[in-house]
Amino acid sequence: MSDLVDQIDALLPQTQCQRCTYFDCYEYANAIANGEAEINQCPPGGDEVIASLAQLLGRNALPLNTDHGAHQLRHVAVIDETTCIGCARCITACPVDAILGAFKLMHTVIAEECTGCELCLPPCPVDCIVMRTAPPESAVIDAARASRARIRHRFREERLARMERETDERLRAKAGMSDQKTPTSDAVKDAVQRALSRKKTPRE
Amino acid sequence: MAESKIQVEVAYARPDRQEILAVELERGATVADAIRLSRIGNSFPEIDIANASIGVFGKRGTMATVLNPGDRVEIYRPLVADPKQARRQRAARGTPKRRSQTTRER
Lengths: 204, 106
Known about the structure:
The complex is a heterodimer. Helices cover about 40% and strands about 5% of the residues of chain A. By secondary structure, chain A is mainly alpha-helical. Chain A has two domains: about 1-70, Electron transport complex subunit B, putative Fe-S cluster (3-methyladenine DNA Glycosylase II, Chain A, domain 3); about 75-180, Alpha-Beta Plaits (2-Layer Sandwich), CATH 3.30.70.20. A two-stranded antiparallel ribbon of chain A has the order 1-4. In chain A, a hairpin with a 7-residue loop joins strand 2 and strand 3. In chain A, helix 1 (about 1-10) crosses helix 2. Chain A is globular and about 60 Å long. The mean pLDDT of chain A is about 90. By secondary structure, chain B is α+β, with helices and mostly antiparallel strands. Chain B has helices spanning about 30-40, 40-45, 85-95, and strands at about 5-15, 20-25, 55, 60, 70-75. In chain B, strand 1 (about 5-15) and strand 2 (about 20-25) form a beta hairpin. The longest helix of chain B has 11 residues, at about 85-95. Chains A and B meet through strand 2 and strand 3 of A and strand 1 and helix 3 of B.
């Protein structure tokens, strides 16, 4: 089963754009494998990806379901430097670490890394990101580009999970609970209860 | 025994050109080691490394920050806009700016 998920994932363009309504390309691959999703929900992949999925799964090709968006050539995000306030929200949103920048410093899209997913647009509080068509030589998402995006995305997910674990451990150590195995331990429950009872007291 | 070498990247980005350079370092190496080995200054002579803000994956750090495998050392540029000034200007304009049409519901 997971073999099949990998085979499906290998055909997807790895934009991680969520237009299919799943968290990333791998989740969509998983949903196709277990019969939950159709093979025509990937606008960046378009007819070509639908055809290859149909062939892999021994099914008939379907027209792209345009409820998920229209197929178009690769676009990349571009940041207007005169407007960017360095809030870092786009950096948090980018699934492939394609934006270089930090809080209160300039943010710049690394064009070669951008999948055109547009996930950075909604969080920007000053609307300083626009989508532009990629240069002709990189307008198509080929296997090499998809493979790089997959690696970037997986590495990012692993890194975020690691950071979460480290924060957890640090907080537990700080609370003197380093010997407790899980955050649902009694000590944590007590702490939560205390916090909740504090909240109930209305402010003067 | 873990491998003694780690792979990291050093990156710098301007609107017109961005580069990510791969570097191999000893385990325990720092941001300073990565930047020196990458020779990123050759590609971007304008980088003033002594005064630049640096970090790893969007988090500011120092030259002494120890690197993990796969880390991307980033050299940042300052903002052009003054965030407070920009906010005042937006407030003075009154109605909040509406989102462009390319944004989809999620």
